[in-house]
Design brief:
Layout lengths: L1 H18 L12 H24 L2 H8 L2 H12 L6 H18 L2 H4 L4 H9 L9 H10 L3 H28 L5 H22 L11 H27 L2 H4 L6 H13 L5 H19 L3 H49 L1
Length: 339
């Protein structure tokens, strides 16, 4: 968290200083409270996933994390009255179902045994010589039930934190540059992580050893910076139900990189889950915004009224012109009679 958010904060600050972004670095006074809430919620969202991964299997932690987009859509529909249609709700639920099919948490699919849990960790993929998953799953099996419940609770707090971040970004809209919002999140997380490293016993700061680890660290920070920037910009310009549904496509990229890096082969359930996510994302992306339809329908009667009023004006103008002609003819006739 410290390395990723520190690099993100440095990149945000340098770019906004170089580009002379308006209201840098704190943003407009009217949205500073929302920006602080965005940073606060984003920190807890990140903390929830990092903490839960220590005591929960990756599959279960992933499924809990992906509850955040749906919660954010409901919050936006209540707080800022954004439309959240039935079709968008169904698309979100189908995407979440796709995540479940890909991750396959042990509590959803199989009995709670060590052999089954190891199979869940591997999934229906065909791994290469990589024993990391098995060792991680074995350590998860040794976690006490109390630690597991605490991890689930922290993960749910992370869900509400991420939903808070999504909702506040949407409420801020275009009143603040996306990088200002990202910088609030990154700076707050860096400060908290620094305090933990300094004052919590057993937490030591270690520098990377070798150019390879430094390269991985810098690459992680740059990718995190780009991801946060694009996510914030998307939520600023598009309504939450459409933008947050795109978050589910993370699973598709994860599966693709899993194939490229670790040479794993997708199974049937993973293919079905990927299809659900991709189909839902495409449907939401191409669907026309109902609010735009409403605005268009409201403008049409106004245009018709303007057209009718202009026609009436033409008629009245024509009548007045005919009257002028008649009066001119009568004046000529009177002059003729006098002569």
């Amino acid at each position: 968290m410290f390395a990723r958010m520190a690099i993100t904060s440095i990149l945000c600050t340098l770019y906004m200083w170089w580009a002379e972004v308006d209201h840098f670095p704190l943003g407009q006074k009217g949205v500073r409270k929302l920006l602080m809430a965005r940073g606060f919620g984003g920190f807890f969202g990140l903390l929830g996933i990092y903490y839960s991964l220590q005591y929960l299997p990756l599959a279960e932690a992933t499924v809990i994390t992906f509850l955040a987009p749906i919660v954010a859509c409901w919050a936006c529909s209540i707080l800022i009255h954004e439309p959240f249609t039935r079709t968008e709700q169904m698309a979100g639920l189908l995407s979440l179902l796709g995540v479940v099919l890909i991750a396959r948490p042990a509590s959803f699919f199989f009995s709670d045994t060590l052999e089954t849990s190891a199979a869940i960790a591997i999934g229906d993929t065909i791994p290469t010589a990589n024993a990391t998953t098995n060792s991680q799953q074995a350590s998860v099996e040794q976690v006490a039930s109390s630690q597991r419940l605490v991890a689930i609770g922290v993960a749910l707090i992370g869900v509400f934190g991420a939903a808070t971040a999504y909702t506040t970004i949407r409420m801020i809209g275009q009143r603040a540059h996306p990088l200002i919002s990202v910088n609030y999140f990154a700076a707050w997380t860096t400060l908290v992580a620094t305090a933990v490293l300094l004052f919590v016993p057993g937490m030591n700061f270690q520098l990377p050893s070798g150019y390879k680890q430094w390269g991985y660290l810098v690459f992680l920070g740059v990718c995190g910076f780009v991801m946060q920037l694009l996510l914030t910009a998307g939520l600023s310009y598009e309504k939450s139900s459409r933008a947050t549904n795109m978050v589910y496509t993370n699973m598709l990229f994860a599966l693709a990189f899993d194939k490229i890096v670790f040479d794993t082969t997708l199974g049937t359930l993973s293919i079905v889950g990927s299809s659900l996510i991709l189909g839902s994302a495409l449907y939401v992306a191409v669907q026309q915004d109902p609010s735009k339809k409403l605005k268009t329908s409201e403008r049409m009667p106004a245009d018709e009224e303007e057209g009718l009023s202009s026609e009436d004006g033409d008629i009245r103008t024509g009548t007045e012109g005919d009257g002028d002609i008649l009066r001119g003819v009568q004046e000529v006739q009177l002059r003729t009679m006098r002569v």
